[in-house]
């Protein structure tokens, strides 16, 4: 299992700083944040020269580029066009996928149908660029739980479409994240991971999103990911740290890396014993 960090954790700093400290903390890769209103470490207007500089910075430290997060309300036509421009830049960087949520509202049929049509449009656009589109199940949006995710994958059958699984979103809507992971495993191509307090609807402050500090069943999630032989990247996505000092952010990333790496190693050992 490959571990990376979404650069949104370093939203108060430039991409060069994010890359340097993500590598320093021992991660294998990075997910670029392209989120309007949070941080755009990759913009939808980046020139070829700017893309070359990003590629150079990443290659110099030896990180892989796993994904771009371009979270937005895709029901707005202008936002879909921006997302397509991000697809183009991701493809030029050799990044295999871009992830967004579905937009819309949970348990609203008209909204869900609109989201599925928007996802279908973006999936085709991603395919045209030679990348994949990882749709993230997201609390409060149209595609938010196991049932709606299965509906999406049934209605939009396309090799360029897969799911981005985040236990904190699935768990907060009432689904068991471990069971959801098992059911959806054939469709999951990307994963976000963090901690929080599952009994609360609001995501906790960054220090309690640090892996091991909240109540997300991360051990069981990692065990299940290993059991289903998940081969994609698992990216630490921690939001809300824009005003944190760099040592605090580095501590969050480093502590999470140590915790998650131990869970991965334990899961592999457990799986190996089971297979014997």
Automatic annotation (TrEMBL):
Entry keyword set: Isomerase
InterPro entries in alphabetical order: IolE/XylAMocC-like (IPR050312), Xyl_isomerase-like_sf (IPR036237), Xyl_isomerase-like_TIM-brl (IPR013022)
Keyword Isomerase appears in the UniProt entry: yes
Gene Ontology MF terms in the entry: isomerase activity
Ranges where the Xylose isomerase-like TIM barrel domain occurs: 20-253
Record PANTHER family: HYDROXYPYRUVATE ISOMERASE (PTHR12110)
Name of the molecule in the record: Sugar phosphate isomerase/epimerase
Source species of the chain: Gracilibacillus dipsosauri
């Amino acid at each position: 299992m490959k571990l990376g960090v979404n650069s949104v954790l370093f939203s108060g700093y430039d991409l060069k700083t994010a890359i340097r400290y993500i590598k320093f903390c021992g991660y294998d890769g990075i997910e670029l944040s392209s989120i309007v209103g949070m941080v755009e470490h990759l913009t939808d207007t980046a020139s070829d020269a700017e893309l070359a500089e990003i590629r150079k910075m990443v290659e110099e430290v030896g990180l892989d580029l796993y994904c771009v997060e371009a979270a937005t309300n895709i029901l707005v036509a202008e936002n879909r066009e921006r997302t397509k421009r991000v697809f183009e830049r991701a493809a030029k960087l050799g990044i295999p996928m871009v992830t967004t949520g579905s937009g819309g509202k949970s348990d609203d049929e008209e909204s869900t149908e609109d989201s599925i049509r928007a996802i279908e449009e973006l999936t085709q656009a991603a395919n045209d660029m030679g990348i994949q589109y990882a749709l993230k199940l997201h609390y409060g949006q149209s595609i938010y739980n196991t049932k709606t995710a299965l509906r999406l994958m049934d209605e939009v059958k396309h090799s360029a479409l897969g799911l981005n699984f985040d236990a904190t979103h699935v768990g907060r809507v009432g689904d068991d994240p471990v069971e959801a992971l098992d059911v959806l495993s054939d469709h999951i191509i990307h994963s976000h991971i963090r901690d929080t307090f599952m009994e609360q609807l609001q995501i906790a402050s960054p220090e309690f999103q640090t892996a091991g500090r909240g109540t997300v069943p991360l051990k069981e999630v990692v065990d299940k990911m290993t059991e289903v032989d998940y081969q994609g990247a698992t990216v630490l996505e921690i939001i809300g740290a824009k005003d944190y000092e760099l040592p605090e952010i580095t501590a969050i990333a480093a502590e999470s890396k140590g915790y998650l790496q131990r869970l991965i190693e334990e899961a592999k050992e457990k799986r190996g014993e089971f297979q014997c």
